[in-house]
């Protein structure tokens, strides 16, 4: 399947809105709804697969496997969070190559020290800007497909202030990043100033519960963004739904309640691919009497 081109979408002025996809159930539901692009979040994919916090604990190999699976299942172009590149410059080189071979349309790397932290939690530290600039140059050189975009994220807002984060964003764009991402901005004023100042396409992180104010697609376009991710929405919604049905089971002893909606099982069978399995069985299954002796 040919995936949509993020490069072409941005060049054509299409605003890119990508929901976070934290597991493959969400991926097949997303296919039903229909998105051109989705986001593979390190936080949410690590939490769903391993039950671990986004603190540099999940390895490159574990995340590559998760990202490759999403690229296989999703009909959308996958924008992939690659944390810090999982190490130094050689690691960045191999990360870009690995993610590109997995089928992503964009690789996001950030300027935190290893082990990194979720951008909306405390105790983050950033590397010197020159170190990240070198990572960006290695990343852009490592890609084999010109359609693969490099997204450069800075987490400097809470360490060096807005001006420090903006200075880094400008430098990262000049170093060759295709998209610039100032993480965890704390007001709409900061968001507008960042978009006015940086000439590269800008990405917003609409992390529900995080430091950045949530804005709609239309509002983000007005602010000046070219794309936005909603990494937490499906994970938080799934956790809330699971909590509701588990409470129902614990206290009422049943899964049936008008207040706790369940996805239709028959439709889910179709989404996950059972129609093809059953077609195969109808074609190839033998009656017991036809079994070879």
Automatic annotation (TrEMBL):
Family annotation (CDD domains): ICL_PEPM
SUPFAM superfamilies associated with the record: Phosphoenolpyruvate/pyruvate domain (SSF51621)
PANTHER family: CARBOXYVINYL-CARBOXYPHOSPHONATE PHOSPHORYLMUTASE, CHLOROPLASTIC, PHOSPHOENOLPYRUVATE CARBOXYLASE
Name the record gives this protein: Carboxyvinyl-carboxyphosphonate phosphorylmutase
Pfam families according to UniProt: PEP_mutase (PF13714)
């Amino acid at each position: 399947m040919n995936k949509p081109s993020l490069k072409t979408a941005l060049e054509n002025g299409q605003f890119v809105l990508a929901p976070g996809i934290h597991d493959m159930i969400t991926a097949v539901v997303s296919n039903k709804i229909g998105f051109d692009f989705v986001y593979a979040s390190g936080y949410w994919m690590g939490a769903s697969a391993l039950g671990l916090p986004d603190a540099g604990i999940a390895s490159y190999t574990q995340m590559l496997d998760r990202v490759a699976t999403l690229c296989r299942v999703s009909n959308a172009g996958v924008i992939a969070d690659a944390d810090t590149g999982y190490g130094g410059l050689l690691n960045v080189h191999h990360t870009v190559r690995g993610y590109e071979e997995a089928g992503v349309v964009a690789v996001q790397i950030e300027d935190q020290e290893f082990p990194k932290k979720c951008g909306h939690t405390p105790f983050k530290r950033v590397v010197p800007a020159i170190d990240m600039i070198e990572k960006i140059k290695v990343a852009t050189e490592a890609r084999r497909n010109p359609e693969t975009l490099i997204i450069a994220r800075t987490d400097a807002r809470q360490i060096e202030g807005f001006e420090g984060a903006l200075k880094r964003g400008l430098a990262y764009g000049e170093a060759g990043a295709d998209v610039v991402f100032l993480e965890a901005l704390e007001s709409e004023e900061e968001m507008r100033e960042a978009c006015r100042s940086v000439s590269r396409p800008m990405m917003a992180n609409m992390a529900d519960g995080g430091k950045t104010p949530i804005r709609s697609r239309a509002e983000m376009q007005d602010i000046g963004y070219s794309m936005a991710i909603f990494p937490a929405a499906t994970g938080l919604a799934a956790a809330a739904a699971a909590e509701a049905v588990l409470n129902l089971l614990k206290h009422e002893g049943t899964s049936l309640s008008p207040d706790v909606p369940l996805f239709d099982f028959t439709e889910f069978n179709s989404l996950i691919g059972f129609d093809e399995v059953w077609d195969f069985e109808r074609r190839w299954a033998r009656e017991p009497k036809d079994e070879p002796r």
